[in-house]
Amino acid sequence: MQEALRFRLSDSEPLGRAEIIEQARFGRRGPRTVSRGLSLTIRNLSKSFGDNEVLRGIDLHIPAGQFVAVVGRSGCGKSTLLRLIAGLETATAGSIDIGEQARAEDIRVMFQEPRLLPWARVLSNVEVGLGRERASVDAQARAESALVEVGLGDKRAQWPAVLSGGQRQRVALARALVSRPRVLAFDEPLGALDALTRISMQRLLERVWHDQGFTAILVTHNVSEAVALADRILVIENGGIAHDIDVDIPRPRRRGSAELAALEGSILKNLLQGTGDTSDL
Ligand SMILES: Nc1ncnc2c1ncn2[C@@H]1O[C@H](COP(=O)(O)OP(=O)(O)OP(=O)(O)O)[C@@H](O)[C@H]1O
After folding, report:
1. Residue located nearest, by CA, to atom 8 of ligand 1
2. 222 Cβ inside 6 Å of ligand 1
3. What is the 3-state secondary structure (H, E, C) of the chain?
4. N or C, which end of the chain is more exposed by having fewer CB within 10 Å?
5. Residue 75 CB–ligand 1 contact under 6 Å
6. Is the ipTM of this complex over 0.95?
7. Cβ of 119 below 6 Å from ligand 1
């Protein structure tokens, strides 16, 4: 059963320093009116691996430019849904329509492991994301601009081995952004990072999404990350979308605020309901 919930909670707490800076940045950038993203329409989508029916009969429409988070218990099929959307798996039944005339380079995936080439310098690793366009005259300039976008303009000549985990993920993000994708799918991209680096990467993801207008699909185990970033949260359970939650909380959102905590608590409660088990989210 699909249940629609809507959250808009009070906005009465004082802003912290980081939020004030973010608010100013968003204010400077202005409202996010233009979307380059593609819409997705999923009809009656099912996926089985042998006898294991992981997803069944999913119907879903994602408007262009929306930031959607997908949460659910381990093994419920979050990554399978993302991989189907990204064309990395084939559906057993059903269809996924992505915008009009989407090209392969319009859809990019960022994974938990940065998957950088150890023998190539940072700039070359970013150029890899250009695919066939790597031979174009402006390839290097585009890669440099993507590196600047993720705050690593000064690391272009470094080897991946000398970067921190957070910096490697930034390079992976630059590689995903360099082709100016219209759908960006994130498969637990921040899962291996420490808490502070994770929050700073969350802000970066939100900023590039705001600035570039792609459609974002984020698979995460971390419900607080989902409520901090997403316009909409899908909870996967028993092969389907058990909850489809609109997150109507203004951006930038205040980490640790009562409204985010209330929404997070309510989603966690839904996830745990009926299982009697709190160990495996
Ligand atoms: N290539 C595959 N071959 C066989 N089974 C698979 C394959 N990929 C996924 N599965 C199975 O599909 C189910 C869902 O896996 P999936 O990785 O989508 O779950 P998930 O919700 O992303 O899990 P987690 O949160 O632990 O990453 C699991 O039972 C998994 O074993």
Report:
1. 80
2. no
3. CCEEEEECCCCCCCCCHHHHHHHHHHHHHCCCCCCCCCCEEEEEEEEEECCEEEEEEEEEEECCCCEEEEEECCCCCHHHHHHHHCCCCCCCEEEEEECCCCCHHHEEEECCCCCCCCCCCHHHHHHHHHHHHHHCCCHHHHHHHHHHHCCCHHHCCCCHHHCCHHHHHHHHHHHHHCCCCCEEEEECCCCCCCHHHHHHHHHHHHHHHHHHCCEEEEECCCHHHHHHHCCEEEEEECCEEEEEEEECCCCCCCCCCHHHHHHHHHHHHHHHCCCCCCCCC
4. N
5. yes
6. yes
7. no
